[in-house]
UniProtKB/TrEMBL annotation:
Its EC number is 3.2.2.-. Keywords: DNA damage, DNA repair, Hydrolase. The keyword DNA repair applies. This is Putative 3-methyladenine DNA glycosylase. The keyword Cell division does not apply. Pfam families: Pur_DNA_glyco. Gene3D superfamilies: Methylpurine-DNA glycosylase (MPG).
């Protein structure tokens, strides 16, 4: 299945859940870095008060969300960068924020990129993941996935299978918007230690994979 089909023909919630266990990689020009997606959040566009495109807001900063499904949307908060992929058809600005991966490829280089941070702290959050990739800019914003050094492996044979896909409210959503702050649009591998804010008591054997 190609990116256009995958990121357009399913709901954003379905895509967010299905991405769990799929390899996300980044080629830094010398090597491949990456891991298995363990946490993703759905943002539902113009109606979603937590989305950057709420109410049809459109600017050069969020133009990536308005691209066809499979377009990269990288945004910054303070000095941190976050990796999203647009979903749905062009000009329907929904997307998925990849929040965390379980490291699998280029781990030593990712540790170096994170100034020696290791273990679950390496990639258990969206900004940490981008730092581990060595990304400190928005250079790949607006690029289509297949025209970038990023790749999401859509081959089902390469996907790890979660024992359980858990759902919760998204992290960091303004609580003044209670309806959208509480919607269960965050999808994660239950018991995986690399999921942000996962408590040790909730860790599962085999990191929550089947």
């Amino acid at each position: 299945m190609d990116y256009s089909t995958y990121f357009t023909n399913y709901s954003t919630e379905e895509i967010s859940a299905d991405l769990l266990g799929r390899p996300l990689t980044y080629n830094d020009g010398k090597r491949t870095l990456g891991g298995y997606i363990v946490e993703a959040e759905a943002y539902l566009g113009k109606k979603d008060r937590a989305a950057h495109s709420y109410g049809g807001h459109r600017s050069p900063a969020n133009e990536g969300l308005y691209g066809r499904g499979g377009t990269i949307y990288i945004y910054a908060q303070r000095q941190y960068f976050f990796f999203d992929v647009a979903t749905q058809a062009k000009d329907e600005p929904q997307g998925v924020l990849i929040r965390a991966i379980e490291p699998a490829w280029g781990v030593e280089q990712m540790i170096s990129n994170r100034s020696g941070k290791n273990g679950i702290l390496l990639t258990n959050g969206p900004a940490k993941m981008m730092q581990a990739f060595g990304i400190h800019d928005k250079n790949w914003d607006l690029h289509f996935l297949s025209d970038s050094p990023f790749a999401i492996d859509l081959n089902d044979q390469h996907q790890k299978r979660p024992q359980e896909i858990a759902k919760s409210a998204r992290i960091g959503v303004n609580q003044s918007e209670l309806e959208w702050a509480n919607k269960p649009l965050r999808f994660f591998v239950a018991g995986n230690p690399y999921v942000s804010r996962m408590k040790k008591n909730d860790y599962r054997a085999n990191n929550g994979w089947q």
